[in-house]
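User: My notes are a mess, but here's the protein and zinc ion's SMILES. Can you give me a structure?
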Amino acid sequence: MRTLLAGLCLLLAAPVFVFAEQPDEAARRIQAQVLGFDTHNDTVQRVAYLNADLGKRSSDGMIDLPRLREGGIHVPFFALWVPTYYKGSEAVRRTLDLRDAMQRLLDKYPDQIELATSARDIERIVGQKKIAAVLTVEGGHQIADDLAVLRMYRRMGVLSMTLTHFRNNNWADSSTDKPAHNGLTDFGKQVVREMNAIGMIVDISHVSDKTFYDALEVTTKPVIASHSSCRALSDVPRNMTDDMLRALAKNGGVVGVNFSAAFLNQQDAENLKKKTTQENALEPTMTGAALDDYAKKEYLADYATTHIGHATLDDAANCIDHIVKVAGIDHVGIGSDFDGIPDVPKGLEDVSKMPDLTAALLKRGYTEVDIQKIMGGNMLRVLEAVVGE
Ligand SMILES: [Zn+2]
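Assistant: No problem, the inputs look usable. Here's the predicted complex:
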């Protein structure tokens, strides 16, 4: 009887609770409870180049531990990104430098952040109210054409790799370079098979359309686009066409929406196009510390010019709407690219603003279950399928 009564009370109380909660309040509550995946940030660069202390809330940059908690992003993917002009062993050396920078952060704040290398790790660490850090490698050039290097990255806790970055490498074409291999070479296909075998997620952000379709042909596991948006809304080669979105859905994969203003809004895209044509610079030929110095100067110059674009938070919500319409609610996630984008949308300037995006989605009629999927459920499904529990 008591159970019956309690059940009745719950039934009566539930609708009152739902209507009493304003979207902003509901958004903050939901965002605090979701797993909170964001499948791409470039924050390790700030640690490596600027010695940023992520344990403290900063007025600089877009991500630190306090703002991750505030934004309800509990599972950030930290990219170990190395520019493509680092060739062969230089790219491997630089990857190790960044892995080391990440380790310093993990060692300094063990009570706040922990490395996650499985789905269960993620659930346990988030359950303990800590940040579950996932490591990724951004650019297939970083394996120096050697599958042993790829396997060692996996053993260092790297769970995912984008097949290319801005330039082609020796085995895959990039979306922002002239085609050289007609997609993936035979070795490139071997890389995809090896990633499937060792439990590493194939990330198709940055690759050319042909490389994308080649990768889907070869992979036996779901893939992700860790930080890409919709080409139907902003026509840049880094974004996904509707046909690619449908193919990704068929594969069981997920696309994490990139918050770069230029990837969300056509007006910002036009500005980016002008800038990228100017930037087709010569590649440096130095090595070691001299190369790191060159990269640091380039990074600082880019970092200093970050601005707010024409895009707004609503453009990010529009992109989510579009992916849901074309690919379905099970194939969309978040891939902010924070600390790696030159332009941010108004209202989504840093990771602490994530509850505002959730509030916008609630206003558009998304349910709490939908939001749980977008904010992590979908990506966890892929991680379970590829990396394992
Ligand atoms: Zn990127």
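The chain is about 50% helix and 15% strand.
User: Great, I'll file this with my notes.
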